[in-house]
């Protein structure tokens, strides 16, 4: 196996024996084969769209399949086999639709166009060579044991004869698309879709097969990925606020209430909403974990009286925190870790999440509820303080006049967006120390699970404006962008001219997509850590530095001095 898509990849280079996330070589190979198969499907979808052939089942499947390969989503090999088989079926159906419309699928003009392009030309041209002669090509009717060696041939393992910089850009594009697919899938679940987003995903996935593309074309596609991600995040923002209202500032208890309990982790608001409805009047209190914390700010979710509070911190601490939780656990979307035996029988997955041996449920959460009723729950009330959340764009822009006045009056000197993913790798204490050292006349905006390095710090306020503003999940990055754009408009300047600095942490591919969005918007001077992606070559990094002034984090003291002078 070879996987370097997350920040914690082995030795900062790539996992080649076992994923640090718990991914086995078998699952890694099946994920790579699914990704490769979706590229073939995308070739047909891209060609078909030009002739008005649009298949919404293909659109939705594409996002689900790509999202499933994102870090910490699905570890169940059988589910990947089923997705590969479904991809083949959809590809065959779409192929016939494209042919019926008189369409052509372009693969490049010359035989030496490249390894993957040749593969695409063969299996999309109708040839069905046997597995042993061409294991990279045929997937249909193959069993799990046959699919794994196929997947081992189409991943991102270093290729001695390949151009490292072009391969780096293909990886950036592929990983960015995994983030776009995640946001698009979240939005579609709540009824918000855009063919503009689907069209770009298919175009870009197909383009990764084209070995004739050069540096400029691939950079353009990466920035296009950022543009598509902005649209996907806009859709998700509309989906969340349209379904559950705009978040409002909310104090969330960190302790427990005596009684039966269910813990919800991941990101999915609809799953939480359904669970709250299904547990109404059942004597069960619902708690959030990880990125679900901001859900307490949504009016249509917080109206449920048994939606109690937040338990635990970020995803990488779940093995300890879940083991101590005295109720059932529901895992939505990504962020699952290998369950330990002490709670393996108490945890349930839903949606795209999967782990071998863990019970997977649909949207009827009866099994989760029954397990919670069997378990002891909390024996007594526990008071562990509280935190504030719910400072999404509407809440912040609702007091924009006060913010602007505070800046013009000199009460607020600077804003820091300290946001992104958390993780277990050493070095992330930088973000705790950074926030602790931010001067008292500055405001910290935050989102995503990186906030758990400092979410319970009592930083006080400036003229009634809290100095620590939790904007929401990583899924709510659109809110942060809209806040920045609105402030720039109020001060009649560009976002890069605002007294605003972005200090970001990354772990998985949604963070890659968000970074590409910021670059698409022309945002400069971003500080990124705790380490730079293993899939970015020195030459590609130089392009980012020269054009966007991206910087690696150093120390909190040095970075604050550089920013504030």
Verbal overview:
The protein has 565 residues and is an alpha/beta fold. The chain is 45% helix and 12% strand. The protein has 20 helices and 16 strands. The strands form four sheets. A six-stranded parallel sheet has the order 4-3-2-5-6-7, with helices on one face. It has a six-stranded parallel sheet with strand order 13-10-9-14-15-16. Strand 14, helix 18 and strand 15 form a beta-alpha-beta unit. Helix 2 crosses helix 6.
Distance between the termini: 46 Å
Please tell me what the overall shape is: globular
Helix tally equals 20
Percent strand equals 5-15%
Q: Which blocks of ≥5 consecutive residues have pLDDT under 50?
A: 107-138
Largest sheet: 6 strands, parallel
Spatial arrangement of strands, main beta sheet = 4-3-2-5-6-7
What is the percent of helical residues?
40-55%
Mean pLDDT: 92
Q: Tally of extended strands?
A: 16
